[in-house]
Amino acid sequence: MATYDIGDVVTLTCNVRDTAGALANAGAVTLTITLPDGTTASPTVTNSATGTYTATYTPAAAGRF
User: Fold this and answer.
1) Which residues contact 64 (CB under 8 A, 6 or more apart)?
2) Cα 17 to chain centroid, rounded
3) Cβ-contact 29, 1 below 8 angstroms
4) Which long-range contacts (CB under 8 A, 24 or more apart) does 16-20 make?
5) What is the reported pLDDT for 1?
6) Tens-binned pLDDT, residue by residue, of the chain (65 aa)
7) pLDDT in the model for residue 45
8) Beta bridge partners of 30
9) N or C: which end of the chain has fewer CB within 10 A?
10) Contact 4, 10 (CB under 8 A)
């Protein structure tokens, strides 16, 4: 598990693959982060390359996300 300081920009990356294991674009990708207080955040996800999706999030509170 990674540890970040409040204010650090955290980059989250996800790869999507087809049944053959090749990178493939998804129809839509949504990211939901559950915050320590139980609320959620949904940062914008970008498709940076075929099958690769990236989002950034900057935590503003301490705790487990």
Assistant:
1) 36
2) 16
3) no
4) 16/51, 16/52, 16/53, 17/51
5) 74
6) 788 999 999 999 999 999 999 999 998 999 999 999 999 999 999 998 999 999 999 998 999 99
7) 97
8) none
9) N
10) yes
Q: How far apart are CA 54 and CA 49, in angstroms?
A: 9
3-state SS class at 64: coil
* Amino acid at the residue 3: T
**In sequence order, what are the beta bridge partners of 14?**
53
Q: Which residues contact 13 (CB under 8 A, 6 or more apart)?
A: 52, 53, 54
What pLDDT is attached to residue 2?
85
Return d(Cα 49, Cα 56) in angstroms, integer: 16
* Contact indicator for 19, 65 with CB cutoff of 8 Å: no
Cβ within 8 Å of residue 18, ≥6 positions away: 24
